[in-house]
Amino acid sequence: MSARRTLPILFGALFLATLATAALAQSVPPAAMPPEPAERREALLAPPLRLAETVSRLPLVALSSAREGAKSQLEDLARWNREGHRPTRSGFARPLPAAQRVSLSAAQRGLPQPLSHGGGFVASAAAGDLVWGTSVGVGGSYRLRLHLSAVDLPAGTRFWVYAAGGDPRPFGLELLGPDRSLWTPSVLGDSIFLEVQVPAEALAKGQPAKLEIREVLESFRLDAHGQPMVAGTAVSGAAAPAAQSCLIDASCATCHTLDVIADLRKAVALLDFIDQGQEFLCSGGLLKDSLPGSFIPYLLTANHCISTQIVATTLEAFWDDRTSSCGGAAPDLGTLPRSNGSTLLATGSADSTSDYTLLQLHGVPDGRFFLGWDASPGAVANGARLHRISHPNADPQGYSESTVRTSGVAFCSDAPRPNFIYAQLTRGATFGGSSGAPSVLSGGFVVGQLLGGCGPDPENGCDYSNSELDGSFAVSYPALAKWLAPEVPSVCNPGPTTLCLAGGRFRVEATWRTPCGAAGNAQVVKLSDGSGYFWFFDPSNIEEVVKVIDACGTFNHFWVFAGGLTNVQTTLTVTDTSNGKFKTYTNAQGTPFRPIQDTSAFATCP
Predict the structure, then answer these.
(1) Is 283's pLDDT higher than 50?
(2) Residues in CB range of 256: below 8 A, 6 or more apart
(3) CA-based Rg of the chain, rounded to a whole angstrom?
(4) φ and ψ at residue 366, rounded to 5 degrees
(5) Are the C-beta atoms of 287 and 264 separated by less than 8 Å?
(6) Nearest CA among 177, 167, 181 for reference residue 337
(7) DSSP assignment, residue 371?
């Protein structure tokens, strides 16, 4: 049997028509998420008092550098990554010198000045709320997260974390896990300030307001070989592996490399999560569901990355972790948009299915792109070209390309086809941190998620005699369809991007994409009860015309006719809201729009 490595990871043509049912759609096209209204963003920016920072800019609790105070843990982390274990490890929890125990009550309201309490300080805020704050410092640390345990706080409690003098990051009890613990978002630097604000109404009702802080998690930068860095020096007790010279900076890839490369960068995140006090890294990608206009933040990764709700709750997903330009500077994680916390929806291990996990994030920042997917049995044929963006060793986004092989490459007996897709790398590579990253076809359709590698030297991603190993999305799909292809609501609500035709029974929408990846939802103009047109770039420039015809009386079908004045890639989706069935029609990039005359579109009369 060939050796296997497992990694944490992320995932036109001529005119075609794809049939699908509401519950078991075979494919869904990708889509860009519309921007969030500015007024909603501003509503989330309520400021903290910065209580602990006001009392003391120095940390109230201080730990020495990991080289001094956590040497054995640091060496264990280095050894884990050096020996090729997966997922890649990037940090660990360290105990505080003494637990901080906080208990707030109505009796503490109206304090004339901050008072020492629970290892921090408590003070009164506006409208009778109580605020408690603390701070923890760790010598020479890169990033820090606090672990709140035994949390018993009322609804409406608000939290912030921040670095000294830095911008505060708000969050709430949505990050609370089933074990009643909560890991805060991370803060870049050697100190982290925490503020907790409990609402006056809850205090007046005598609701409990308690928590404990017993440990802080220290995250490390990893060098090119996955070794933790302390004060700019890698911690390693053995020689580093060969240089990873085959890695390709994803910022160097262009639309000539992959038509949707710009969108793929916006869909893939670096995943940071905690399991039993250890921090790990993987990659993952956003998936679009089949409902038009829906952007529920579903994220696909691997089971060997995240497989329980307790771990899913700790997730911190970093977006846009890519170099400023081809070969340019890498950003600091603390400056990047991120998502914190998630709900585990479905998961399956490599032993039983295809090593997948589907999460629902609590939210995503503006500018995200949702990948499409293809669950049809023939989506991944021998010779198909797969594309991937991932975070090897927590580096900024890297690009890799491979060719599907059904023979002639290394196979692992414990990962049989068709549950797993085998492919031979042709460009770039994946390493620890890449696990769970989606593999995509041209056009942005996910067909798998990275499990690892198989071959003579599976830890060496630059050895192309190994094969890449992905869990098959088609195999995972029956367990995911509940969320990715839900029943379509039996209503059509007209809007700027939605036509409601034939008495409002049929919902018609379209998307467009330019050759170098600019994309959007087509704007609509209704002409009659059965017809309308779309524009892409300018209201005066008609791009596509569509009509739905009731031919039930003679031919027992509803017909769909459409014509276009464009050669830009466009996908038209027509949904029968009476039963959720829909059809999609795609015109390929650079191809003059071919007329649609589908007289068998919907056999759903009356």
Answers:
(1) yes
(2) none
(3) 26
(4) -60, 160
(5) no
(6) 167
(7) B
Q: DSSP strand E in 350-466: where?
A: 356-361, 369-370, 372-374, 385-390, 398-404, 420-427, 438-441, 445-455
Q: Which two tokens stand for residue 343?
A: 């709900």
- Please choose, from the candidates 58, 55, 49, the residue with its C-alpha nearest in 3D space to the C-alpha of residue 158: 49
Structure-block tokens of residue 105 = 């009550």
Rounded-to-integer distance, Cα 558 and Cα 418, Å: 37
- CATH number for the domain formed by residue range(s) 3-9+373-474: 2.40.10.10
**What pLDDT is recorded for position 1?**
28
Which helix (DSSP H) or strand (DSSP E) does residue 6 occupy? strand 3-6
For 25, 344, 489, 599, the CA distances from 605, given in Å and listed in that order, are 21, 39, 18, 13
Residue 21 neighbours by CB under 8 Å, 6+ apart: 580, 581
- Closest C-alpha to 576, from 17, 19, 16, 15: 19
Cβ count near 95 (within 10 Å) = 14
| Phi, psi for residue 200 in degrees, rounded to 5 | -60, -40
In DSSP notation, 78-135 reads HHHHHTT-SSEEEEEEEEEEEEEEEE--GGGTT-SS-EEETTEEEEE-GGG-EEEEEE
- C-alpha pair distances (Å), 107 with each of 123, 196, 496, 561: 12, 17, 54, 71
Domain boundaries, the chain: 3-9+373-474, 499-602
| Long-range contacts, stretch 38-42, CB < 8 angstroms, 24+ apart | none
Whether 371 and 28 have beta carbons less than 8 Å apart is answered as no
Tokens for 569, please give them: 């890639």
What is the DSSP secondary-structure string of 540-580?
TSEEEEEEEEEEHHHHSEEEEEEEES--SEEEEEEEETTT-
Instruction: Write out pLDDT tens, residues 344-379.
Output: 999 998 887 899 999 999 999 999 999 999 999 889
pTM of the model: 0.82
